[in-house]
Amino acid sequence: MNTYDEYLSIIDKYNRNNDLPRNTQMGMLQTFYRGQSNKNWIIEPSINRSGKRERDILGDIKINAGESLFQVMARVQHYKEAKTREKVGTRLIDFTKSVDVALYFACCEEDNDGAVFVQSIVPHKEEWYTVHILLEIANLESEKVNVRELTDILWSKYSLFSERFEDKGMVDNAITALIDFGIMIIPEKETLIQNKRMCAQEGCLWICGNRLDDRNQIRTSLTSKSMYFYPNDYCVPEWFCDHRDLLKIVIPKRKKEEFLCKLSDKNISRESLFPD
Questions:
Q1: 4-54, pLDDT tens digit by residue?
Q2: Can you list the alpha helix ranges (DSSP code H) found in 81-146?
Q3: Closest CA to 113 of 29, 40, 197
Q4: Are strands 228-235 and 247-251 parallel, antiparallel or unpaired?
Q5: Separation CA 158–CA 154 (nearest Å)
Q6: pTM of the prediction?
Q7: Which of 109, 115, 117, 116 is nearest to 257 (CA)?
Q8: Cα–Cα dist 170/177, whole Å
Q9: Which domain holds residue 211?
Q10: Rounded to whole angstroms, how far apart are CA atoms 21 and 15?
């Protein structure tokens, strides 16, 4: 991959071959991008490198009036913590809807070949029950938790669960259907207003799941309630690691300066992507 036009052509071919975006039974299948300045880095959440528990991190964060848990975690993901002036980790992984933003992050450090990862998936919305499931795990104290225990918390805390599901067994099943996988979130307008960096970067966030005991067990409303998961053991889909269903475009380090100049002409720079 030697030219900017070639980069765009690769992505255009991917989208055309996969008929993207398109409507599916699950929702709108869309393309998302992630740039990394070193092609050898694995895709993982920053909390894996922090050495801290998610509950402890969030316990030190000031929550503003009316701020949702997702908005808090998105803020923690993009800004330094006010007390220590240090970045702290979260279970979130940054993606973007912009091919140019992804290319910038693949080129912003010039010591190694970079990479842009391309993935198509149906995103979820902030207010969906799936988001509440994965984020509520951040409030759990125990190292190992029974699925029904999480169901009881969700059922009593959020009315949408009793409104959507006929019984707790269905919630158990909903939890095990996604807990060791994760979901992509497109932020709502209010979240983007609060988070200028995510807005400038056309950002989306992958919420990582958690390790589930005996993940090969058949998951039904009868078996799910007795399964256990680990709130502090975060996992990503296998295709994040083996790139089986993920397009990886290698960006040669010798081309990075040229690409950054091209992006600057399109007003894609550190100043524009980090406006505050």
A1: 999 999 999 999 999 999 999 999 999 999 999 999 999 999 888 777 788
A2: 99-107, 129-136
A3: 40
A4: unpaired
A5: 6
A6: 0.91
A7: 109
A8: 11
A9: 4-273
A10: 7
